[in-house]
Specification:
- The chain has 299 residues and is α/β, with parallel strands linked by helices.
- 42% of the residues lie in helices and 17% in strands.
- The radius of gyration is 19 Å and the shape is globular.
- It has a domain at 2-152 and 182-210 and 272-281: 3-Layer(aba) Sandwich (Rossmann fold), CATH 3.40.50.720.
- Helix 2 (42-45) links the parallel strand 2 (30-34) and strand 3 (49-52).
- The chain is built from 12 helices and 12 strands.
- Helix 1 (10-22) crosses helix 8 (184-196), helix 5 runs parallel beside helix 6 (126-138) and helix 9 (216-227) crosses helix 12.
- It starts with a strand and ends with a helix.
Length: 299
């Protein structure tokens, strides 16, 4: 039995799609935890065991992890008014961590971040909190693999309107700061592979680095070429970044966590892991732009 959290999320939905195609051939049963089962297509609900509720709830995870061999774990990005980043990550995960041990769950695959061991890892906001969550899960004794991810290519979909209307996208890092970028479909593929082939043991990170490092200026150039129109990068002042997050309803802890994370990325947080055959993932940014961004911008 494989249990998935966030099955309607960006990564979770792609993990679920892969498992629906491949798990039956391996005799694997699937169970999902979802706040609103109606958000799952009817044909999906017919093929999985559905446990309604939040995977931060002790009663929900106690039901869901009964008989589970493996769990796909994501701390959701909700909770913009959370009092602390610990509440968003480790606090949300503590009930599940107890349930992993209580039900003898053997393997857990989690979505996490790059940065462990870098000089700025201890002051990287959301990344620091995510790494602490990894330690909490690993401390339960399960075999754990943390998918250590850089920034997502898919985050640019949040800026489709300014890209379409003004030919501009923003971030707070230096325009020439090259770093890895990963497509969420590659992260989902890595997760599904680990969930289906549980020959691994112990605790480790699985970096998903994409095939190349790119700076925001590189990203702008490739976007311009694929979209056949000029796109430029604008570096956003930190105060403007804070104001934008606050305007979207985020509380102080979450806002400052994002500021700290992005400041750490600008200082090289994501560049501490070498790209090898094991850590590289296949989707190039150009391919992602052609297949994902371009259709979104043209709508």
């Amino acid at each position: 039995m494989i249990v998935l959290t966030t099955p309607t999320g960006n990564i979770g939905s792609q993990v679920l799609e892969t498992l629906l195609n491949e798990a039956p051939e391996r005799g694997e049963e699937l169970r999902v935890i979802v706040r609103d089962p109606a958000k799952l297509p009817e044909e999906v609900r017919a093929r999985v065991d559905v446990v309604p509720g939040s995977h931060g709830d002790a009663d929900v995870v106690d039901r869901a992890f009964d008989g589970a061999d493996a769990v796909f774990w994501v701390a959701p990005s909700s909770g913009p008014r959370a009092p602390s980043l610990d509440a968003v990550y480790s606090g949300f995960t503590r009930a599940a961590a107890k349930a992993f041990a209580a039900h003898g769950v053997g393997h857990v695959v989690g979505v996490s971040a790059l940065g462990r061991g870098t000089p700025v890892a201890g002051r990287a906001g959301h990344v620091t909190a995510s790494l602490a969550m990894d330690d909490l899960i690993a401390g339960t004794g399960v075999a754990y693999r943390a998918l250590a991810n850089p920034s997502f290519m898919d985050n640019l979909l949040r800026q489709v309107t300014p890209i379409h209307d003004a030919g501009v996208f923003t971030d707070i890092v230096d325009g020439d700061r090259a770093a890895p970028l990963a497509a969420t479909r590659d992260i989902a593929a890595a997760a599904a592979g680990l969930l289906l082939d549980r020959s691994w043991s112990g605790t480790d990170e699985v970096p998903v680095l994409g095939p190349e490092d790119l700076s925001p200026n590189d990203v702008a150039r490739i976007m311009s070429e694929v979209l056949a129109r000029p796109v430029r990068y604008e570096r956003q002042p930190l105060d403007d970044f804070r104001a934008a997050l606050t305007g979207h309803g985020a509380g102080d802890a979450v806002v400052e966590g994002f500021v700290a994370m992005m400041t750490a990325k600008d200082a090289g947080l994501d560049t501490g892991v070498p790209r090898t055959d094991r850590t590289a993932s296949p989707t190039t940014f150009r391919t992602w732009c052609e297949e994902v961004l371009k259709p979104a911008v043209q709508v």
